[in-house]
Every structure is written in C-alpha cells, then in structure tokens.
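Discussion board: Methods & Data

I've been asked by a reviewer to show the raw model output for two of the constructs in my manuscript, not just the figures. I'm not sure how much to include, so I'm pasting the format here to get opinions. Each protein appears as its amino acid sequence followed by a line of discrete structure tokens. Is this the kind of thing reviewers expect to see in a supplement, or should I convert it first? Here is construct A:
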Amino acid sequence: MDADGLRSNDYEEYNRRTTDYGNGRIEIAAYHCPRLRHTGSGRMPSGGKAETSDKAQEERTRQQIYAIRRRIKGYALSNSFRWFVTLTFDPEKVNSSDYETAKSTLLKWCRRMRDRHERFDYLLIPELHKSGAVHFHGLLGNVPADFAEAVNAKTGRPIVRHNRQVYNLTEWEYGFSDCEEIESPERAASYITKYVTTALLTDKEMYNKKRYFNSQGLAKPVVVFSMDDNTDLNSFTPNFGIIETDTDGRNVIGTGIYNLTADPETGTLSQTDDSYLMTAKTERRKSRTFETMKKV
C-alpha cells in the first residue's frame, strides 16, 4: 500500500488507449512510456486531507476539465447530431442571470420537445457571461423541428456565415437562437468541448452543479486500455503528436493520437483525417508549436 492508501493492484499499466465511437470512428492514443490508470477501489485513509494549495487546485481543475471534455467528445462523435445551436434568453421572458432559472427553463423545453417530436437528442453546455447571464451552446439530433432561414432584420436578406446559411429554431420561444447544420462531426465535437472552460468549473455559481446536459439514450464510446508494441500504427501518421526527448537524448513521439476509420465489414483501419499537428513538450508540461504538418 502506498502513501495514499492505494494498493499496487489498484493500478493498471497501459501504453495504448483505443476509443471506438461505434460508427466506424476509432481514436487511438499511443504512448512511448507506459502510463498508470487507477482501476481499484482504494481510497485515501480516513482523516487524510487533500492538498489545498493553489497549484494542487489548479491541477484538479485541469484534470476535471479533461475528463468532462472527453465525455462530451464521446457523446458528440458516437451520435448522429445534425445541428450546432446557440440558445439565448430574452431578459424580458427569462431571468438568465439566475442560473437555476435558466437551467430549469432549458430542461423543461427539452422535455416538451421530446414529447412533441417523440425523440429529441441533445447535448448542451452553459456559457457564463461576465454580466452573470447564461446561454447554452450545443448539438441537436435530426429532429423534425421548424428551422427557418435567418434573415437580416434591416435588409431582409438571408444571414450567411462562412458560406453557410444560418437558421433560427422557431420552437425556442424564450429568446434567440442561432443554428447551423453540421458538416464535420469532428469539428463540431472539437468546437463544443471548448466551452468547458476553467471559468465554467471555478465559477461560484457552478459549485457542485452539472456542467453539461444530455438527453437519455445517447450512445457512448467503448474505451479499451492495453499494452501493445504499437508497430501496427507505423503505417499511419499521428493527427496530433507530442515530441519528447527520451533517456538516450533522442526525439520520440511521446504521445501520438490517431484518428482512424474502421471498415464496417472487415474492421480494417484506414486514415482519412488529413489534419496533422506536432508539438514539443516543455519542462512545465505545456506544449508549444513544434511543427505544423497541415493546418487543422
């Protein structure tokens, strides 16, 4: 048993994490040096106290952000979402400065949408403004709701952003909506996770409250941890990699993340994602840009 009251068999060593999103998308994270994951039920001994320094709290927040972002990414890529939406509140209709009021209004609306359309898949994240008001960003499934083309109130012309039509969800009756059809699930997943910020986790209004909301029945990815020689990945290029220096002074890919596609019949893996980024690890465990092989 170690100093934290955990047994050695509470841990599992791995150098590969495979995430299967259930629809042909496979993400493999390969590590040059094996890592440990906690698998047991060991807990800190009675009377023990967690470190309360600013540095320790910052690290806990960082780990929490990472865990929540991975769960949100898992939902985003394991399900067939069609719309990226932003839902804001009209202050004359809803007091969006009160988080509980805004949250309750949102979730009641989601239940009504489910009852109205029989199925309503959603994944929504709150964003807090400095003013104290809250609105929500998220993903919606292929719900047969009324998405009307947004038009400029002054000119009457359609609102187009990045050569794409913007829509309003007319069934959002509490304020304003901004909706775009999703072209790339990967980009939508990356974008939505960015709303899980340090501010969201540390804001006093959010203490002990849920940081995201999802409909019941959403698919989840299957994650497998293993020890492999990883030579089967030599034919692929890491879509994201961190360059480290090993004990012999050689530059190696300390962490390589591969976005792959599995053939539905044979299971054979191929690489169709052609966005690549390599970074170099610094002493403070932060990364600076080392080489951009192709812009993401």
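Construct B, same format:
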Amino acid sequence: MLKTLHRLGLDATKPVRVRSAQGPVEVAPRDVVVSVLPDPAFIGPRMTGKTCAGVLVTGKSKDGTPRATYLYHVADNAETMADIEAQAVVAQTAFNPVIALELLATGVWEGVGVMGPEEFDAKPFLDLMSSSTGYKQKWVAQERLATSPLRHP
C-alpha cells in the first residue's frame, strides 16, 4: 500500500494546486491521505490478531562454537486492549524503553557516556519483562542453526 501511495505521489508534502467547489486551493497530497484514514485512537478495539517482534542474535557460545538464538515476543491485540488500553503494536513498541528506563532508574543498568542496549546484561530486562511483578509479557528464545541464520531477500 505504501509503495502504491509513493508511486502515485500521494506521500508528497509539497502542496499541489487542486480544483474545488470554492476554486483552486493548494494542498499537500499526504494531508489528503491522512484526512481520510481512520483515527488510530478509535480502531484499536475493533482490531483482531497478534503481532510478533523478534531479533536473531548470532555469535559464539562460551565454548567458542557458532550460535544463533531467535528471541521474540508475541502480543495479542485483544489482550493489550483489555490490559492497558493500547493496540498490540503500540504496546510492543512501548515496553522496550519503559523497561530500559526502569532498569536505569533503579541502578540495575548503569554506565557512563553513550551506551547501546547490547552493552547491558539482557537477563534483568527479560526477567522484568516477563515476571509477575513486572510487565507480565512472555518472551521466547529459540535456538537456530548457526550455520544458516535467517536472511532477508
């Protein structure tokens, strides 16, 4: 859909002149598209289904052999709407920074300067994500063949 909108120029932000009943007006094509889309705040309760977010981690195990692990989280829209009144994709997007901020605020994670998430121990993050006193979000780790990791086309 997005590719089609792009090919038609409907993602453009530069206003174009269009004819209307009141005479010619200037309008950005993207604004026209946005004005006819449903308001995301009201479609959440009507949506059904699940979303999966994951990462394939590749490297070497402690003994030096190649290893690949796929970590993922599935969110069900009906459950997230009932629990936190947010769509599944919104919930999945929000959990990561919220959990990271909590770990930083409590001193579980600490450091000096700019640090990427891979520099922190993942266990406290995953524990807080899934614990009954944390965010109650189940995550799964699947071992994969390290010699043939997932590849994007």
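Answer (T.O., handling editor elsewhere):
This is acceptable in a supplement if you add a one-line summary per construct. For B, something like: Helices lie at 2-7, 29-36, 40-43, 77-84, 88-105, 122-130.
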